[in-house]
Design brief:
heterodimer; A: TIM Barrel; 15 helices; globular; B: alpha/beta; TIM Barrel; two-stranded antiparallel sheet; 12 helices; 13 strands; LLM class flavin-dependent oxidoreductase (chain A); Luciferase-like_sf (chain A); monooxygenase (chain A); oxidoreductase (chain A); flavoprotein (chain A)
């Protein structure tokens, strides 16, 4: 093969301010028709998989349910099984939490998805240490942060031994789980569903290098991507694995236009949609840890300092790890350098994650550059509109990449492991299964 | 309601792998791998839908035995491609999370366009408990008290979003009206759940609740929560007694018995003549014996239609759940021969009925239990 091939995951728009609901083209986040439209477009674009995120408690801000962003999601497994009915090749990736599920049930659910989809299941494994979410579950409480990877590793070990058991009894006794008994299903067409892992700490990178098939990252620049890529791929040999065994897939946004200038105008418009005036204040409150509802979003930053003790003003979302006072100073410096930017202007500039902006040709060039120069193996695309956010990418960018020889013109096989170029290391396909 | 009046007789069918009989796949020469494909379940459900059956029931269990796919997964896989029939997976509640179950069934209702139900059941054995390693097996009274709490919290979670909670109000920048989202704040003997659900209220409001009421500990749960009650009985007289017992319990729980449909399990193996059918079952039992779990018809499609006719006269049930011993063969005979006979005798409506699954059982869309009118003016 001449050129390195690009892989794409299609992230169904999430429940945060990246997803624009105020646009006239914004449809339902929960109607099945939206999932059908989105998934069928991803498949039209020969993408590797559709990706569903998950959050198991509605976010709260200042003690009440956050009401400014899209909210509400169907059940991950149920939607993926239903999408399997309206697609033929597209991989089906679901984010499923190991803290609030038991491995035996997860093993059965993922094996069922893999059987019922003909080998297209993928698991984005997350493990939280979140007492807030725990209030919705029997387990309640939370997992000590230090035990997150211990639990994740045990879940992988137990589920894989169940998938491989072929009717033989399984016994597992570990610090997190005691599981014994028989598993009711033979291995699915993929043997093991594709395992996706997100996590940037050294521990997270090692866990991915040891066990995952793909890693979902957030490294934005070419240089940061290259450093990350070299680091995680370099960890693989220690676990007896090769470079092909772990795909590095950063989550990225994109904005397209007929020209680069038009795309930039659209991108600016989208940022204003993503950061409404009340959303700007809510972001500011997350940094400041204070009620700032009295401030004018079009006015200057507050003079008061962040309340560094109030770290839980927003619950149910991934937190920024930085020191709030340092962030506040950075934002003040940025506002001054910009000639006195407003709160909303600053939030638009400082919280944006627009990765690729330009004409289809420009975006294809940039993406191809990232992949060919080993900053990643592909991307998980995060569109800002439901359900049509992928449509133009599929129509206009995919052919550009195909013209460059960097993207497939047909699916290489029936299973997601085939699409991703992964081996079936633990349970090779039988002739019948691959037929 | 009087049982088996023309418009009200309800027919369900259990779609379990190769059928209820454990030797069915081997006897019929089915490739076991075919039972794990979506095509198998799509084709069975389509056959049932084509003749207007009300419910396809997908059993599930954590008891070791024949291969069994997750039943909610099967129903979800079938839903987008087989319209017009209720899809009712079994969901075992003893070792699973009520929060996950609630959104899974709500989502089945979304992807099926309002055709979802569920059949909660319990896990009894130490072997099932050992698969989870969280708690020991428990006695039936404990199991069913927990099941009742589970159904309760699942329904509350369905109601935790008002139907009009999403407002998309550009003027204030609000996507959702948080006053229309409700903490369920459930605290019981077995678990607590804060809420609200992450999934909006399903299209039917409350997907259909199907419960068995064979054992005394299950009866009060069915009386309080079931829209459809499944019973098993050795004969039609016993079925009539069981039906009356269910109706009395429903009334005792403060509900109208006519809002609850009692379905009698009828095991079925059909052949061209009764001799052949009995010989088949003898061959099946020689491979692996299966004691009848309820009324069984081993005979012809006419025999089956006759039994249902007798059931009508005796008031033995409001309908039946066909339990085919061999799939897909027995479903084919039921759908293509027995159901047309029933329709011809005026015992079953002809053609499909549209609308939601609840509407097919004469049930309206329930008022949200968090709606202001039902919380006694407690709203601010």
């Amino acid at each position: 093969m001449s050129r390195k091939q690009i892989h794409f995951g299609a992230h169904f728009p999430g429940v945060n301010n990246t997803t624009v609901w105020s646009d006239p083209q914004a449809g339902s986040q929960t109607d099945f028709a939206s999932f059908v439209h989105f998934a069928q477009n991803a498949e039209r674009g020969l993408m590797d998989f559709v990706f569903l995120a998950e959050g198991l408690r509605l976010r709260e801000h200042r003690g009440v349910i956050h009401d400014l962003d899209v909210v509400g999601r169907p059940d991950t497994f149920t939607v993926l099984n239903a999408i399997a009915a309206v697609t033929t090749h597209l991989g089906l990736a679901g984010t499923i939490n190991t803290t609030f599920n038991e491995p035996y049930e997860l093993a059965k659910q993922f094996a069922s998805l893999d059987h019922l989809s003909g080998g297209r299941a993928a698991w984005n494994m997350v493990t939280t240490s979140d007492a807030f979410t725990g209030e919705n579950f029997r387990r309640g409480g939370f997992l000590d942060r230090a035990h997150r990877y211990e639990r994740a590793a045990e879940v992988v070990a137990v589920t894989r031994s169940l998938w491989d058991s072929r009717g033989e009894p399984v016994e597992h006794h570990g610090r997190q789980f005691d599981v014994s008994g028989r598993f009711p299903l033979p291995p699915g067409p993929q043997g093991h569903p594709v395992l996706i892992q997100a996590g940037d700490s050294a521990e997270g990178r090692d866990f991915a290098a040891a066990t995952a098939d793909a890693i979902f990252t957030l490294h934005g620049t070419l240089e940061a991507g290259q450093a990350f890529y070299a680091d995680v791929k370099g960890r693989l040999p220690r676990h007896g694995r090769s470079e092909q065994d772990l795909k590095v897939l950063p989550g990225v946004t994109f904005v397209l236009g007929d020209t680069d200038a038009e795309a930039q105008d659209t991108a600016d418009h989208i940022r204003r949609q993503q950061v409404s005036p009340p959303t700007a204040i809510a972001f500011l409150e997350q940094i400041w840890g204070r009620d700032l509802s009295g401030y004018d979003p079009d006015g200057p930053l507050p003079d008061v300092e962040p309340d560094v003790d109030n770290v839980s003003i927003t619950l149910g979302r991934v937190r920024h790890a930085k020191d709030p006072r340092a962030v506040a100073q950075e934002w003040r410096d940025f506002a001054a350098a910009g000639g006195g930017l407003s709160i909303r202007q600053i939030v638009i500039e400082k919280t944006g994650r627009q990765s690729f902006i330009g004409s289809p040709k420009t975006v294809a060039d940039q993406m191809d550059l990232f992949v060919q120069s080993n900053a990643c193996d592909g991307f998980i695309l995060v569109p800002h509109l439901t359900p049509g956010g992928l449509d133009r990418f599929v129509t206009d960018v995919v052919p550009e990449l195909q013209d460059r020889g960097s993207y497939r013109t047909a699916y290489p096989g029936p299973t997601l492991r085939d699409h991703l170029g992964l081996r079936h290391p633990h349970a090779p396909l039988t002739a019948q299964e691959s037929a | 309601m009087s049982p088996f009046t023309e418009a009200r007789m309800h027919l369900a069918v259990e779609l379990k792998g190769a059928g209820r009989h454990p030797a069915a796949a081997q006897w019929a020469g089915l490739d076991p791998a075919s039972l794990l494909t979506p095509q198998h379940y799509v084709s069975l459900t389509r056959a049932a839908a084509r003749r207007g059956l009300d419910l396809a029931l997908f059993p599930d269990t954590f008891v070791a035995g024949e291969p069994v796919l997750d039943a909610v997964a099967i129903a979800a896989r079938v839903a987008p491609v087989v319209p017009g029939i209720g899809l009712v997976p079994t969901a075992t509640v003893t070792h699973t999370e009520p929060f996950h179950l609630s959104k899974a069934i709500a989502t089945l209702d979304i992807v099926s366009g309002g055709q979802a139900g569920w059949e909660p059941t319990v896990s009894r054995t130490p072997a099932e408990a050992a698969l989870f390693g969280r708690k020991p097996a428990a006695a039936p009274d404990v199991l069913w008290r927990e099941a009742a709490d589970t159904v309760d919290v699942v329904v509350r979670l369905w109601d935790s979003w008002d139907d009009d909670a999403v407002i998309r109000d550009a003027a204030t920048g609000r996507y959702v009206d948080r006053d229309k989202l409700h903490y369920v704040d459930f605290t019981g003997e077995f678990f607590s759940v804060k809420g609200p659900s992450i999934t909006p209220r399903p299209p039917q409001g409350h997907p259909l609740v199907v419960l068995r009421a064979d054992e005394p500990e299950a009866l009060p749960v069915a009386a309080r929560w079931a829209d459809v009650v499944r019973i098993a009985a050795p004969d039609l007289d016993a079925a009539g007694v069981a039906r009356e017992r269910v109706r009395a319990a429903v009334a005792g729980a403060g509900r109208d018995p006519d809002d609850v449909t009692v379905l009698l399990d009828v095991e079925v193996h059909l052949a061209a003549d009764a001799h052949r059918a009995r010989a088949d079952v003898a061959e099946l039992d020689a491979r692996a014996a299966l004691e009848p779990s309820s009324v069984r018809v081993t005979g012809t499609a006419t025999d089956l239609a006759d039994l249902l006719g007798r059931a009508v006269r005796l008031g033995a049930a409001d309908g039946v759940t066909f339990v085919p011993l061999v799939l897909p063969a027995d479903l084919g005979a039921i759908a293509d021969q027995a159901v047309p006979l029933l329709a011809g005798r005026g015992l079953f409506r002809t053609g499909r009925s549209g609308g939601s699954l609840r509407s097919r059982f004469g049930l309206g869309r329930p008022v949200n239990s968090f709606a202001p009118s039902t919380v006694g003016g407690a709203q601010s």
